[in-house]
Amino acid sequence: MKVLVIGGGAREHALCRSLSLDPDVTALHCAPGNAGIAEVAELHPVDALDGAAVARLAGELAADLVVVGPEAPLVAGVADAVRAAGIPCFGPSREAALLEGSKAFAKDVMASAGVPTARSYVCATPEEIDRALDAFGAPYVVKDDGLAAGKGVVVTADAAQARAHALSCERVVIEEYLDGPEVSLFAITDGTTVLPLTPAQDFKRALDGDEGPNTGGMGAYSPLPWADPKLVDEVLASVLQPTVDELRRRGTPFTGLLYAGLAITGRGVRVIEFNARFGDPETQVVLARLRTPLAGPLLRAADGTLADQPPLRWHEDAAVTVVVASHNYPGTPRTGDPIEGLDEVAAEDAPYAYVLHAGTRREGDAVVSAGGRVLSVTATGKDLTQARERAYAAVARIRLDGAQHRTDIAREAAGE
Ligand code: AMP
Ligand code: GLY
């Protein structure tokens, strides 16, 4: 099977790494990719947001499957363009991707499907904003309606800050604060059958102890030793299946990866957000634990035969990933700095720990930073403690001027 992956972050590196290990994958391509993906896939300098160009490339490569990684191409309709060219595509249509592209749309789908989520108001005027902030009280949760790469959400006890963020958004969702640990649960779906993956936890704040601003995600781990073993079945029944059924009922079936961001509150599970693609960095740990070769389930989701997929198999091992970010991330990051130590990780830490590239590019013989999240060091071990040790040992070998990372990824879950 020839596979083309669209995107160029650590999530796409994780996808390409898994696909490159799948014996059914005979050729692996990626557009645009990054310096790390270049080691496992052939790169093509095609704009990920240009549906016609992606469909043309997939046709030229005679791809049997296109996997669209990030949300922006999905919301731009890239999966529609690929499918219109007759090529199976893992990734929802533009209309179904609105589940991520518009928080207000997601709330409407959840209301129709009876999916538990925070109570919320969609506001467009200062009066509506003030009314909603007063109705819920502190802590305030204020979300930009559109795509914001995980940075459009402000959670604060400060009413003035909440109001200022709300006023800066064109359309804003203000909602009830959900108290409790967060879980990311992904499911592969063909629009009818829903196949959940294994749960992971992400660390959204920039600094240790969950301090600092929200980011795209600074680290993740799986499994969740503290979670109820029935969690996956419960979320499948109360969240994932009803949402997929509702989108099919609306005539906009969702094909691809449905990401449920959940809060485990004292009153039960609530959806914090949906995403329409694999999460980053959770994918790094979920795929590190997946035993079943990846291409089969993705192709079956893309061609509508997911009901034929045998149950997924998982490694007992735990996995931890730690994101190394540029100076000043999540503000405007500094880029162009050389990254050293990558060879040492490959020589000393493989196969238990490895680097997945995000914002990197090759400059002559050097690999330099090219984005906010630069790379994601992923490690496996017999438990979270060992996976953490291996991940942080590898992080310590990476030298990037001004870089930052959290030191407490999975620490509490490991019982340390
Ligand atoms: P989102 O982009 O919707 O996932 O929000 C980013 C982060 O903001 C989430 O991972 C939560 O940590 C936090 N957050 C979002 N909505 C809520 C909520 N209703 N209650 C508490 N925290 C929230
Ligand atoms: N890790 C959060 C996200 O992918 O949106």
Walkthrough of the structure:
The chain is an alpha+beta fold and 416 residues long. The chain folds into four domains: 2-90, 3-Layer(aba) Sandwich (Rossmann fold), CATH 3.40.50; 119-175, ATP-grasp fold, A domain (Dna Ligase, domain 1), CATH 3.30.1490.20; 180-308, 2-Layer Sandwich (D-amino Acid Aminotransferase, Chain A, domain 1), CATH 3.30.470.20; 318-397, Phosphoribosylglycinamide synthetase, C-terminal domain (Glycinamide Ribonucleotide Synthetase, Chain A, domain 4, Alpha-Beta Complex), CATH 3.90.600. The protein contains 13 helices and 24 strands. It has helices at 10-20, 51-60, 71-75, 78-84, 94-101, 103-113, 126-136, 159-168, 231-249, 282-289, 295-303, 342-348, 384-397, and strands spanning 2-7, 27-32, 42-43, 65-68, 89-90, 120-123, 140-144, 153-156, 172-175, 182-189, 194-196, 201-202, 205-207, 211-214, 219-222, 256-265, 268-275, 318-325, 339-340, 353-357, 360-363, 366-369, 373-381, 399-400. It has a five-stranded parallel sheet with strand order 3-2-1-4-5, sandwiched between helices. A five-stranded antiparallel sheet has the order 12-15-18-23-20, with helices on both faces. A four-stranded antiparallel sheet has the order 6-9-7-8, with helices on both faces. α5 (94-101) packs across α6 and α6 crosses α9 (231-249). The longest helix has 19 residues, at 231-249. The radius of gyration is 20 Å and the shape is globular. The mean pLDDT is 96. Bound molecules: adenosine monophosphate and glycine. Glycine binds at residues 150, 202, 216-217, 275, 279-280, 282.
